[in-house]
Amino acid sequence: MQYRRMPIEIEAPETYGYENIDCNLSESSYADQRLGDLGISLNDLVLFYGDHLGKPALRELIASQYQLKADQILLTPGAAPALFMVASSLLEKGDHVIVAKSNYATNIETPRAIGANVSFLQMDFDKGYQLDIEALERLLTPATKFVSITYPHNPTGVSINESALKKVIQLVEANGSYLLMDETYREMSFIPMLPLAATLSDRVISVSSMSKSYGLPGIRMGWIICQNKKLMETFLAAKEQIFITNSVVDEEIAYQYMCNKEKLFAPVKATIKKNFEVLKHFMQNQEVLEWVEPQGGCACFPRIKKSIQIDTTQFHEVLLNKYSTYVGPGHWFEQDDRYMRIGYSWDKTEKLEKGMGNIVKAIQELRTA
């Protein structure tokens, strides 16, 4: 495999230094939570090799939400390793994969590292980032191993309805391919929540994580859900060869959180929705940015209006170095730097408002027309 570092990792805020950023709008997750605020105790935890599939009680909790079986859940150290395990299990050099773009960089770079041929299902700002079913059908070939989509979408926050999801699954099934559905933001939907995709077909692989909507990236906890026993056995083999097991510390924290999810997650959702309304109000009362309004998640992907002439490289430099405000530039997602990912629930609400104001100031300062 030919690995290369991704810009989104090279330029991550932790690399630049959180202490050097006043308004951090680059994150795509809820604010990082403190262990002490969650009422979790680890004093009696035995630090052993855990179940290779993952803590049984946690898998049972997750499975019970969807009328699935615990052995249809494979716990992983976050969603990124889950995506890696799926791609490396299904793809070989020369295979074909279709990825909806823009997308989380791992969904693109891992197939490339394997040597697979990647076709992009383009998501166009001017078409509301809608999923083009007809374009997907044209891209499918007998060599297509899987189609990779993410909803609610990172970085745009858009989503699809259940009918569209079922059409995608029908196409994938008819082609003998699989659907890889990253559902990390599924529970943070502003529109009716989609059914868990893996419950709709045994040719669907659902991936999720506790990093983004839950604000728990430090415990590195995610999962793969799939009804196909043969695939799950392959994914388990991949996990065992890479990780053997998860951290039992991470699993125990995740389990105790999920046991109290109704209490702990409610204020998270309330804060995200409050911040979204703040952001929405701001976007309606400025004249330099345009967006496709998010339908879920914790991030959006606006762009500087095309009528504004500006050096986008200079804009991002001034925004960070003069205004101490960090956003995710478009090139993190192989897009023009006129675009930017803005996370609206990691930093405090007042920092969100200040950071958005700084974005407008930087644009006004540098625009030439």
Radius of gyration: 20 Å
Principal-axes shape call: globular
Helix proportion:
25-40%
Domain unit count = 2
What is the residue-averaged pLDDT?
95
The largest beta-sheet arranges its strands as 2-8-7-6-5-3-4
Could you tell me how far the N terminus lies from the C terminus, measured between alpha carbons in angstroms?
Answer: 46 Å
The CATH topology of the largest domain is Aspartate Aminotransferase, domain 2
Task: Provide the β-strand percentage band.
Answer: 5-15%
The count of helical stretches stands at 12
Low-confidence stretches: none
CATH first level of the largest domain: which class? Alpha Beta
CATH superfamily of the largest domain: Type I PLP-dependent aspartate aminotransferase-like (Major domain)
Known CATH architecture of the largest domain: 3-Layer(aba) Sandwich
Structural class by sheet pairing and helices: alpha/beta
Query: Could you give the order of the helices and strands?
Result: HHEHEHEHEHEHEEEHHHEEEHEEEH
**How many β-strand stretches?**
14
Largest sheet: 7 strands, mixed
